[in-house]
Structure formats: structure tokens, C-alpha cells
Write a structure and sequence with these properties.
alpha+beta; 35 strands; 9-stranded antiparallel beta sheet; elongated
């Protein structure tokens, strides 16, 4: 042992001297070999430990680091500069300490918020770091409890059932007889179905318990990354043997161990290098369109400030210049005590005026916006209409600072499956051997189920005998299951967000994809009879040792069809009372083989003797199985080799020539219904469909799949390889040894677009070939019909291989498995060699039902002027049918279909499409692109007559565009993208079929960048992540495809229908509130600063102010801050009901009606006018009087405050008690502070003093008269303008065009009668906005 330790130390030194490798890898050694050596000798010392630290600050770094982060905002830097400038004697305007108060307050509030958030993260980190786990100790020679934070890369960890993984661990041992571990990954991807992980290949055959002290292997793997679906590497043993490592060997941090008493693994990645932590990005922060526009206006404010300062400096220089050599008595000397020249004096005054006019740049605006957005997010979360009871999930705002963008969307890009549809796949019909089975009884069952669901929605009390809406859950749940689930929930809360933990807990109560609608299939009587007939004939021939080749080919295809449905998947079988625990039934297996030669010997004729067939089936070649199981991985195929142990039942001996396991009780398993935990709803639907025909999946092991057939009993298929589904191949295959024929058979299922191309061309010179051609022709017709009905289609095929062919393929496949460089490409090529010359068995049609409210939501969004594009991976016919069902496409629309095989053909199609649009719809327009730029809302606001002439330009939008994935790839080329965009823009609907994730993101990026429009992408799966991240706003549906889309999104919602209220109501409100609040801030600050500017004309532009500096500093910070926050948070220009009844009101935000560039200048002009009134009315009131400066300046401050608050009241649309309270509080606060301040400071600023100023003013009637007249005069133009605007909107105008009008090419618009039920104030507002919108569009037409 000592020699080994010394040897390990020398090896570590040699490792340190090695140069860095060209490719990025990580080498992991066992820490047990270095426990007596120095820390610097351990080769794992450079890797991160397992301590989690998500906090940003420490006690020492908090202040400097937080200030550094806050100073990244230019406004904070500006105000700190102004405050420090006030400390310079020659240009200070206020008391230096007092000038620091506002910026210190703002920085302190932000720092306290950051500190509180960081403290919460610290508490969460501490809880996680101090969780316990079992780590092997070399001195103690046993596993000891250690904190998670003490775990290091290279440690051996023992994990028990229901424990959470503390790090990313390579699985080396399992108590499961099949060396498997089941894990639940809900905290990572939201998927609650169990996934299986396998012990590393070289540790499969250990006859004794794994001993970490004897471990001498070295692991080389890839660097830490955030790809949850990939892990590559290899392990090298002391003997020189090297085995590949795959993602199925890796247990990820945060997952929960299920169904396994205990397992052991070595830590590969720890702490912040684990895949879970690398995927934990937290909330996303973006800059909204409104904020970008606001920053432009802030720049204008800076320019106005500089102009005002420059004007004052020039004025002061001229003022001083007119005195010449004779200096005035009020002249300020330089620091040296000499007189300053007019030029130098003007320069110093320029800096002074920057300090005096600093309020023009609204320092409190940025903080107020953050507060208002947080409040908006809170109220969105509290909206009960955005809560989904079925999944116990509500809308989440993950990006906190783009809520107003929701009110300005113009384009929506949506996925189809799981977003528009339920992602609940229901088996509807199938065709086998060219014969179609319509399953009419099953269709009637589904119709009855939908009727029951609808009645349950209308009637709250449940009725006996009705089917439940939610997924069925067996009532007899065991106590152990409840404990397990509670522990799981607690663990999720420790390792993930609370919202995701709660969701995972709720969903874990149900078996995924197992609602009654999905699993209770009614079989087709004709097909059921043929299945029974085929099983009976096979059983007869098996009993009489006859060849199965003599059976009718139709019956053989039917049996093979259902075999493929049952075994070509990764479904895990679980018991009904404990769905988290697998059924344990296992047939006796022989020992595994380790070489190709041994494997081939297993298939020699000697295996057909009775002595070699006492067992149910032979064992799998584990090396080949494990290798190919990792051929291709995708989010929809987590594990390609699943495993299920089965307890032995009483088998009936089979004939010696047939390696089958036969249970004389075909229905023995029906007493206890098994549950199927599938990784995708398609797999579950097909397995449940096969079970309806008594072809049930009853067990799965890594090396065999057990199926029960009518008359045949249980058959055990030896599983040789599983080639998982991926988006490139679009198919999945399993290689098995058929138990009845002893042949090596490949069963494949996949998209019809790829499977039909892999079918062996039938011969033309015999009857068998004619039959095959007829089957292919009929099957293709049925596929087209299924797609036209909106069904998802899959083709089923098989291939029989000779042992020689299989040996050749296996040899090359094993070479691909052991390759380090380019392994994925080699395995992909290996799969292509296997999946050729297939025999077509049949096809299936699966229905994916639309979610509730999808057609209505799309119709409302269209009326709101939103362009909706659907980007889906489904085939064209299926997507078109769903598009009609969800009202994306209208039956009255003309459809432009683009299908091309080359880039040149695509260019021709686009040219023809543009020409067709121009000729038919724009024949009178010489500039088609100009017509494309018309506002799209017109087509949504008005329905054209049935007999519309081609001269109506707005009918260009009555088109639909359908394009397939291949053509889309050509159209997205830089040479054709402009033409494609021109065609797509002119169409009312766009449907992209067979599109890849990359194509989805490219389409979104093209529209966003070229058209300069606001885009929203919505999806529910991992294939939608790139599209969601590219769009201005990304929305994730927390559906059945996991949480990848949610984690990448800005907003997450349970249902697509929630998008309607999120955009039309909350989006409209958020945009309207923030837009008006920003404009109000600019107006308020400009109005207050202008008061001081007018005074400069009366004080020689000296930089002095008639307003007390306390009022100047705290006017924005205290006296006028609260009312605008209340209005910015609660104001509603239109009610929620009206916004949903009149979606056209949403165009207000699309066109930025609330915040156009000219509005900034209108508010600035109004601010300067009001400041003139508030300045000169008191000026003329007190002219030639003996009042001092502050006795005249304090009324100006009071009048300005009253005018500003009254102005806010005019702009407020919805008055609540909080509005009244905030305005009253601001007025009372001002007078209270003024009275207290004026009574407690008799000699603050000698010779001028504010002492008793407010008390004196309150005793004068003139002050009260000014408080009434001045705000009225200042606000008169705005009040008159608002009244005139409202009056004009309410008067009849050319909006009321009827069909008889010669200038009207559209139907007359009529308001919904429901508006009459609204309150008068509400009626006026909604009526006004709608009239403007429709008036504008008619003028455009």
C-alpha cells in the first residue's frame, strides 16, 4: 500500500510536468491514492470543491463592489459628480452636505435591496452546503457522513434511495441486480418520469461489493459544460483496458435516487462545475423598447440642461462685462482674493448652474421605474385567471424589467406541439399491411370524454360515473409513497427554485401521459379479431414445431406491427400502487459475453438444441448494448436502454426448438394494471394502444423486453441494441432476437418522410412485389388522409438480418463506440448502415388535441393587430389541419404553398409568389413594398365582403403561407431572405413545417432585425429554446416536455390561452402606466427647474435661487414622489373586460401611441408654460412689496407642487382611495415639513432666513388666492386640450362608414353591445380609444 501511495505521488508530479493537451479534457484520479501525500501532489487539486456560493458580496467587499456595480449606471455617476462638484467653493450652489442627501439616499436604498437579496442567497447556500452525504474514508475504511461542501472531485460517495445527489457522480456500483439506478430529474428539466442510469461497463460483472480502496482506474472526460444531454469520456484501468463513458453513466447533481437501495460513484464534477449549477442562470435582464426610447429623451434633457447653463453663463458674462472696471458690490472674488474676469466668472457660473439645474435629469426616475415594475410583476403573479389548477402552476415573470414590452408586441412565433396542443397523444387509427382500421368506437369514446369534460367545467359538483378531467391517480396510495414524495419536495426546495419544486411535487403525483383519454383505448373489432387469429395460429405452429413462414403474410405483419409498438420505445413499467417503483420479475439469464466471437457463437446452430434453451432467453452482449445505447441522444430520449426486473412466474416449458417463455395464463397480468412511464407522449400512446389489443409490455431489462400476447402468453425478446430517436434521423430502432424465430430483427418507427425512403423497393416481376407496391401506395394514401385530419403520423417497419450481416455491422459499430474523436459521427453512420432496406408494416395516426381556448386566443390576438407565425416540426398536412382548427388559417383564405428541392427552385417560387400578389392584390400599386408597410391591423378590424374586388389593397392580408423545412432552409439564405420576407409579410398567416430548432431561431432573428419589429416567441420544449432566446420576449409553456423552455424564457405560463390576458391586459396596462409615468417625470422636473431659470433674468444670472435649498433637494425625493408611484402601479386607462372584448385597443401600444417622440417636446413646452405662470403670477402679486426672497419663493414652491399634483390628477384615468391618500399625504407632508423647518431655523442662512415664512404666508389671504388661481391658469391649456380631444372623439366622424358609401370598401364597424353595460367614465375611455384606432385605419384604406 505504501508503495502504491509513493507511486501515485510520483505519477502526480509527472502529470504536473505535462504540457496542456490540445483538446479540452479532465482527468480524474481517486483521492484515496493521495490521502497521505501533500495537497499539491493531488492531481485533482485544481478542480472546484463542492461548496456552493451564489452570493455576490462579503462583509469586506460589499460596499466597494456594490458601489462599483451601481456606478455602471451612468445616471448615478452623473449625480455623484454633481454632488462632488458642489464641494468646490467657486461653483457650489447648495450646502455640500445637503447636496449629497439625494444621491446617498438613492444609493442606500439600492444597496439595502441588494444586501437583502444577497443575504437570502447566503441562507440558501448555507442550508445546501450543510446537507449530509456518505463519503468513503481511507483511514476508517468505511463511509462516513460529511457535509456537501466537504466533497471533492475524486471522492467516492454512497447514495441511498430518495437521497439527492450532491455532485455529478460517475456510477460504479448499484445494489440493483441489473446494475441500474433510477433517478428523477424534475429539478433539472421538470420531467417527473423516471430515467435509468447504468453502471460503467467494466464494473457490471462484479461478484462482490464494490471496494473503493481497490480502485486504480483513471477517468478522462470532457471539461465542465451545461449540456444536460451529453457526457463523453473513457475510463482506463490498470490493466490497460479502456471503456467508453456516456451520459447514462452519469448521475447529475440535484437528481433524486429512486428504486435503488444504494449505489456508489466517484465525483466527476463538483460545486459550480456541475451541470445543474452551470445551467442556473437566474432571472434574465433585458432593456425594454420603452427604456431605450427614454434614454434618448434623457439625452435631450442633458442637451437642454447644457443649453440652459450655457445661456446663463453667457448672460452672466455679459452682465459682468457691462460694469467694466467698476466692480459691483455683490461681485464674488476668486479664491486668491482678486476680481475674476467676466470670462472666468462665466465658466465658474456654468458649473454652478449645472448644480442648480441638476434636477432636470430625473435621478428618482430610475428608482421609481424599478419600484413600479416590481409592483407590476407582483400584480401579474396575483392574477387568478393566469393560474392553472390542473398543474398547480401560475404565470412566472423571470425577466423583471421588460413588462412594458408585453404591450408593444407585433409578431408572435409559436410552436405547435405542446404549445397550441395539449401534448396528450391519443391513438386514433392505424393501417397495417395496406388495410386501414378506423377505430370508430374509439372516436366515439373520445367524443363522449370531451362531452364529460365540458359538463364538468359547467357543473362544479362531480357526477358519478364521469371520467375525471385530471390525470387518474390510483386511490390506494401507500404510506411509503407519501413519505417519499414529501422528502422529494423538501429536496427540490433545497436544490432548485421553490416554484419549480412545488410544480415537481404536484406533477410527481401523476404518471406522465396516463390520463384516461390517453390510455383507455377502444380497439377496432376487425383488427382485434386478426390479432387473436394471428396469435392463435402462431401458438398452434409453435406447439407443432412448424415454421412461422407458412402463416399468411397479413397476420405476420399484424403481429410484428404490435411487437414494434410494444418494444420499440424506452417505456418504464411501474406498479399501480407505487408508480415510482418498478415491477421485479426476471427470467433466468446466461452470463454475458464480452467479445464478438463469443457473441457469434451464441447464434450458431448448436444454440437450437434443447440443452441450450432451458432458459427463457439468452443474455445481451453488454458491451455492444451499452455502447450503442448512447448512439444519439436528445431531450426526448433520455435513456435508450431501459431495464425492468421481473419476478419469476410459473413458466410452462416451451418446445425445445423455440426459445420462448410461455405463461399459460395470458391474462394473469391484467389483475393488476401496470403503469407506463414514458419519456414522450407518442411512446405512451402507442404502448397503450398495443395493450388495448392485449399486446402488453409487462417487463423491461437492459437485455430483454417481456411482452404478453394473446394465446402466446409472455414472450421475452433479447434486446441487443437500442438506437435512440434524434432530430436528425427522425426515427428509433431496436435490435432484438425474436423468441419465436430466433432471428435477429430490427424494428424501426419514425417519421413517414424518412421511413418511406428506407423501404426496400419491391420487385416488379412477381405477385409478391405487386402486393408490396399496393401496400406502399395504400399506406401513403392513408398517411395523407391522417395528416389532412390533423393526426401525427408514424411509420412502423422491420428488417431481418442474417447472423453474418449482423456480425459485420457489430464489428464496425464497436469500433465506432471505442473511438474518442468523432464518436458521434461514426455512430451516426453506423445507425444509417443498419436502418436500410426495411419492410413496411404499417402506420399510425395519433391525435394531439388543441388546448382549451386556443382558437379564441388566436382570434383575439389577430384582432389586436398581432402577426402570428407557427413554426413546427410536424409534417405539412398535419400542421395545415391544426392551423385550420386553431383558426390560424381561414377557409376563405388563399394558401401559398412553397415546396422546393433546390435553391433555384425556391427563388423561382418566391418570384412567382411576389408576382401573383402584385397582380391580384396590388395591380394599381407601382410600389408593392410600400403597400406591405401598411398597418396590418386593418384586416383584423374589418371583414371584407365575400365578393371583394382585387383592387382592394388590404386584401393582401387574406393570404396564408405554408413552407416546408427544406424550402425554408433555402429561403433563409442571404440571397433569398429579402424575397421570402416580402412574401411572408404580405400574408395574414405563416406556417413553417418540418422546421428545425435552428431554423426557428433564424426566422425570428430575420423578422426582428429586418423589419425592426417587436417579436415574441412561445414554446414548451427544448427544441424551442433557441427561438425563445432570440426573440425580444420569450415565453415558455410549463407543459409536459420539461422545463427547458421555461428556464430559457422571460415569462412562463401554464397554458397558451393565458397569453391573451398577459398581452392584451397586463401588457397594455404596463406599457400605458410606464409611458405616462416617464413623460410625467420629464414634465415635473422641467417645470420645477424652469422656475429657477426664469429667476436668473432677475438676479444677473448669478446662479442664486429664490427657493430654499431644502425644498430644491427634497422636492422630487419626498414631496412629489408617492402619487406618481401609485398612479404608475395602479392606473388603468381601460378595464380588463373592455381590453379583452376590444382587442383592437392593443394597437395603442404597438404604435407607441402613449409615448411618441413629439410627446416629450409637448410636455417640455407645457412644463415651461406652467413654470412661467407659477413664476410670474406670484411675481406680479408681490411686486413692489417689502417681502423677502424666501417669502416670495416659498409660494412659488407651493404653487408648483399643487400644479404638479393637479396635473397628475388630470392624467390619472382610474381613481382609487390610494390616489387620494397619496396626493393628500404629499400636500400634508410639504406643509408639515415647511412649518417645522421654518419654525426651527431662525439663523440658518444669514442674512436671508426662512424663519416663520410659511406661518406668515398661511395668515395672508393673498396666499390662498394664489393657490387657487395659479394652478387653474397653469393647467388651463392642458384641461381645454383634453376636453376638446374627448369631445372630438365622441362626435360622429368618417369612422361611421357604411356599405353604401362610395368611399367605403369595408363593412360598417359596430361596437359590441356589451360596452353599454360599462360605467359612464369607462364607456367614454374605451369608446374614445376604439374610435381613434378605427378612424386611423379607415383613413389608411
Amino acid at each position: 500500500e505504501e508503495r502504491e501511495l509513493v507511486k501515485g505521488s510520483k505519477e502526480a508530479k509527472r502529470q504536473r510536468k505535462k504540457t496542456k493537451k490540445e483538446y479540452k479534457t479532465r482527468t480524474v484520479h481517486s483521492n484515496l491514492l493521495y490521502y497521505r501525500t501533500k495537497a499539491e501532489d493531488n492531481p485533482n487539486r485544481h478542480y472546484a470543491d463542492n461548496k456552493i456560493k451564489t452570493t455576490k458580496y462579503t462583509l469586506l467587499s460589499f460596499l466597494p463592489k456594490n458601489l462599483f456595480e451601481q456606478f455602471h449606471r451612468f445616471a448615478n455617476v452623473y449625480f455623484v459628480f454633481i454632488a462632488l462638484l458642489n464641494f468646490v467653493p467657486v461653483c457650489n450652489a447648495f450646502q455640500p452636505e445637503l447636496a449629497l442627501a439625494p444621491v446617498v439616499f438613492i444609493l442606500s436604498v439600492t444597496a439595502i435591496k441588494d444586501l437583502w437579496e444577497d443575504y437570502r442567497r447566503h441562507r440558501s447556500d448555507k442550508e445546501i452546503n450543510h446537507m449530509d452525504c456518505l463519503v468513503y474514508s481511507r483511514p476508517e475504511r468505511q463511509y462516513l457522513e460529511r457535509f456537501w461542501k466537504e466533497v471533492r472531485v475524486g471522492d467516492f460517495i454512497r447514495l441511498r434511495c430518495n437521497e439527492i445527489l450532491p455532485a455529478d457522480v460517475l456510477l460504479l456500483s448499484s445494489s440493483d441486480p441489473d446494475r441500474l439506478v433510477h433517478i428523477e430529474t424534475a429539478t433539472l428539466d421538470g420531467e417527473t418520469n423516471l430515467k435509468q442510469r447504468q453502471v460503467v461497463r467494466s464494473f457490471l460483472d462484479l461478484d462482490c461489493e464494490f471496494d473503493p480502496s481497490k480502485y486504480r482506474s483513471v477517468i478522462e472526460c470532457e471539461k465542465p459544460n451545461n449540456d444536460l444531454a451529453r457526457f463523453r469520456g473513457y475510463i482506463t484501468h490498470s490493466s490497460g483496458r479502456r471503456d467508453g463513458l456516456y451520459k447514462d453513466n452519469l448521475l447529475l447533481r440535484g437528481c433524486t435516487i429512486r428504486n435503488t437501495e444504494e449505489c456508489v460513484g466517484i465525483v466527476i464534477y463538483a460545486g459550480h462545475e456541475t451541470k445543474a449549477m452551470l445551467n442556473n442562470n437566474g432571472p434574465r435582464y433585458k432593456r425594454s423598447k420603452l427604456e431605450r426610447q427614454m434614454n434618448v429623451d434623457v439625452g435631450w434633457c442633458v442637451i437642454i440642461l447644457l443649453v440652459m447653463c450655457l445661456f446663463s453663463a453667457i448672460g452672466h458674462g455679459l452682465w459682468m462685462y457691462q460694469y467694466g472696471e467698476k466692480r459691483p458690490v455683490f461681485d464674488v472674488l476668486s479664491p486668491e482674493g482678486t476680481h475674476m474676469s467676466p470670462v472666468l466668472s462665466a465658466i465658474y457660473l456654468f458649473l454652478t448652474m449645472i448644480i442648480v439645474f441638476q434636477v432636470l435629469i430625473p435621478i428618482s426616475l430610475f428608482v421609481s421605474i424599478e419600484i413600479v415594475k416590481i409592483c407590476q410583476v407582483y400584480f401579474i403573479h396575483q392574477d387568478l385567471e393566469l393560474y392553472d389548477e390542473e398543474t398547480d402552476s401560475h404565470l412566472q415573470c423571470r425577466a423583471l424589467n421588460i413588462t412594458e414590452d408585453l404591450g408593444q408586441m407585433q409578431y408572435i412565433f409559436s410552436d405547435k406541439t405542446g404549445t397550441l396542443t395539449e401534448n396528450k397523444m391519443v391513438f386514433r387509427r392505424c393501417t397495417v399491411a395496406g388495410v386501414e382500421y378506423s377505430h370508430d368506437a374509439n372516436a366515439r369514446r373520445l367524443a363522449m370524454y370531451q362531452d364529460v369534460v365540458d359538463s364538468e367545467e359547467e357543473d362544479c359538483p362531480s357526477h358519478g360515473g364521469t371520467l375525471p378531467r385530471r390525470d387518474s391517480v390510483t386511490s390506494h396510495q401507500s404510506a411509503a409513497k407519501v413519505v417519499l414524495r414529501s422528502q422529494s419536495t423538501k429536496s427540490h426546495r433545497r436544490t432548485g427554485s421553490r416554484a419549480e419544486a412545488k410544480r415537481a411535487s404536484i406533477l410527481s403525483k401523476h404518471t406522465a401521459f396516463s390520463s384516461p383519454m390517453e390510455k383507455d383505448i377502444t380497439p377496432d373489432p376487425q383488427l382485434l379479431d386478426k390479432v387473436n387469429d394471428g396469435g392463435s395460429q402462431m401458438d398452434f405452429k409453435r406447439f407443432h414445431s412448424q415454421s412461422l413462414s407458412q402463416m399468411p403474410s397479413e397476420l405476420t405483419d399484424i403481429i410484428d406491427f404490435f411487437i414494434a409498438l410494444t418494444i420499440c420505445n424506452t417505456v418504464v413499467v411501474s406498479s399501480p400502487n407505487q408508480p415510482r417503483h418498478k415491477v421485479r420479475m426476471r427470467f433466468e439469464l446466461k452470463s454475458p459475453v464480452k467479445t464478438i466471437e463469443d457473441f457469434i457463437k451464441r447464434f450458431t446452430p448448436s444454440r437450437l438444441t434443447s440443452s441450450s434453451n432451458n432458459s427463457s432467453s439468452s443474455s445481451l452482449n453488454r458491451s455492444s448494448n451499452r455502447g450503442c445505447s448512447h448512439l444519439l441522444t436528445s431531450p426526448s430520449a433520455e435513456s435508450t436502454l431501459t431495464k425492468l426486473d421481473e419476478e419469476p412466474s410459473s413458466p410452462v416449458p416451451a418446445p425445445p426448438t423455440l426459445g420462448t417463455c410461455y405463461d399459460g395464463k395470458p391474462g394473469s397480468q391484467e389483475e393488476v394494471e401496470l403503469r407506463y412511464e414514458a419519456e414522450s407522449p407518442d411512446e405512451a400512446a402507442l404502448v397503450y394502444a398495443a395493450r388495448a389489443y392485449k399486446c402488453s409490455l409487462v417487463g423491461r431489462l437492459p437485455d430483454q423486453v417481456t411482452v404478453e400476447f394473446p394465446h402466446l402468453g409472455r414472450l421475452s425478446f433479447e434486446l441487443l441494441h437500442t438506437l435512440g430517436f434524434d432530430s436528425n434521423r427522425k426515427r428509433m430502432s431496436v435490435v432484438v432476437r425474436h423468441p419465436l424465430t430466433d432471428q435477429i430483427t430490427v424494428y424501426t418507427k419514425g417519421a413517414d418522410s424518412v421511413i418511406m425512403d428506407l423501404i426496400t423497393p419491391p420487385p416488379t416481376d412477381d405477385s409478391k412485389g405487386k402486393r408490396h407496391r399496393r401496400i406502399l401506395y395504400k399506406t401513403q394514401n392513408y398517411l395523407n388522409r391522417y395528416a389532412a385530419d390533423g393526426l401525427r403520423t408514424l411509420c412502423i417497419a422491420k428488417k431481418v438480418m442474417s447472423k453474418e450481416e449482423y456480425a459485420v455491422w457489430l464489428r464496425r459499430h464497436l469500433e465506432a463506440e471505442t473511438a474518442i474523436q468523432g464518436r458521434e459521427d461514426l455512430l451516426f453512420e453506423s445507425a444509417l448502415r443498419l436502418e436500410t432496406n426495411l419492410h413496411l408494416l404499417g402506420a399510425t395516426g395519433i391525435e394531439d388535441r388543441l388546448q382549451d381556448g386556443v382558437p379564441e386566443t388566436i382570434a383575439s390576438l389577430r384582432k389586436a393587430g398581432l402577426q402570428i407565425w407557427v413554426l413546427t416540426g410536424d409534417k405539412q398536412e398535419t400542421a395545415i389541419n391544426i392551423a385550420y382548427a386553431c383558426k390560424l388559417l381561414d377557409p376563405e383564405e388563399e394558401i401559398i404553398t412553397l415546396n422546393a428541392d433546390s435553391q433555384d427552385a425556391t427563388a423561382v417560387l418566391l418570384e412567382e409568389s411576389l408576382h401573383y400578389i402584385q397582380v391580384k392584390f396590388l395591380c394599381s400599386s407601382s410600389d408593392p413594398s410600400r403597400a406591405f408597410q401598411n398597418d396590418y391591423a386593418s384586416v383584423y378590424s374589418f371583414s371584407p365582403p365575400a365578393s371583394s374586388s382585387s383592387s382592394q389593397p388590404f386584401l393582401v392580408h387574406r393570404l396564408g403561407l405554408v413552407i416546408d423545412g427544406r424550402t425554408l432552409a433555402y429561403a433563409l439564405d442571404s440571397s433569398l431572405e429579402e424575397k421570402f420576407l416580402a412574401v411572408a409579410r404580405s400574408c395574414r398567416s405563416v406556417l413553417c413545417c418540418r422546421s428545425t430548432p435552428l431554423q426557428k431561431s433564424m426566422v425570428v432573428k430575420l423578422v426582428r432585425n429586418k423589419l425592426k419589429v417587436m417579436t415574441l416567441a412561445i414554446g414548451d420544449g427544448a427544441n424551442d429554446v433557441s427561438m425563445i432566446q432570440v426573440a425580444d420576449v420569450g415565453v415558455g409553456i410549463s407543459g409536459q416536455e420539461g422545463m427547458q423552455a421555461v428556464m430559457a424564457s422571460d415569462f412562463a405560463m401554464p397554458r397558451f390561452r393565458n397569453l391573451q390576458k398577459l398581452l392584451l391586459v397586463h401588457g397594455h396596462w404596463c406599457y400605458s402606466r410606464l409611458a405616462n409615468m416617464i413623460l410625467y417625470f420629464f414634465y415635473k422636473n422641467a417645470m420645477f427647474v424652469a422656475l429657477i431659470f426664469w429667476y436668473q433674468f432677475h438676479c444677473g444670472f448669478s446662479g442664486s435661487a429664490m427657493i430654499d435649498q431644502w425644498y430644491l433637494i427634497f422636492f422630487n425625493l419626498m414631496f412629489s414622489a408617492f402619487p406618481q408611484l401609485i398612479t404608475g402601479t395602479l392606473d388603468k386607462d381601460v378595464s380588463s373586460e373592455t381590453l379583452q372584448e376590444l382587442p383592437q385597443l392593443y394597437m395603442n401600444g404597438q404604435n407607441s401611441e402613449e409615448y411618441k417622440p413629439y410627446m416629450f417636446w409637448v410636455n417640455m413646452i407645457d412644463a415651461f408654460y406652467q413654470s412661467l405662470v407659477c413664476f410670474f403670477i406670484p411675481y406680479f402679486a408681490y411686486v413692489d412689496s417689502d417681502v423677502d426672497l424666501f417669502t416670495w419663493g416659498t409660494p412659488i414652491t407651493t404653487l408648483a407642487l399643487l400644479t404638479i399634483l393637479t396635473h397628475l390628477g388630470i392624467e390619472t384615468k382610474t381613481w382609487t382611495w390610494l390616489n387620494w391618500l397619496s396626493i393628500s399625504f404629499s400636500v400634508c407632508l410639504f406643509f408639515t415639513v415647511a412649518l417645522c423647518y421654518n419654525a426651527s431655523c431662525p439663523s440658518c442662512f444669514s442674512p436671508s432666513s426662512p424663519y416663520w415664512t410659511m406661518q406668515t404666508l398661511l395668515g395672508e389671504p393673498l396666499f390662498y388666492l394664489l393657490c387657487v388661481l395659479t394652478p387653474v391658469a397653469a393647467l388651463m391649456p392642458r384641461s381645454v386640450g383634453c376636453a376638446r380631444k374627448c369631445a372630438l372623439k365622441l362626435l360622429p366622424s368618417d369612422v361611421w362608414l357604411g356599405p353604401e358609401s362610395p368611399s367605403a370598401n369595408c363593412e360598417a364597424f359596430q361596437f359590441p353591445t356589451t360596452i353599454t353595460a360599462l360605467h359612464h367614465h369607462q364607456l367614454m375611455l374605451s369608446f374614445t380609444h376604439t374610435t381613434l384606432i378605427y378612424k386611423r385605419h379607415i383613413i389608411v384604406i
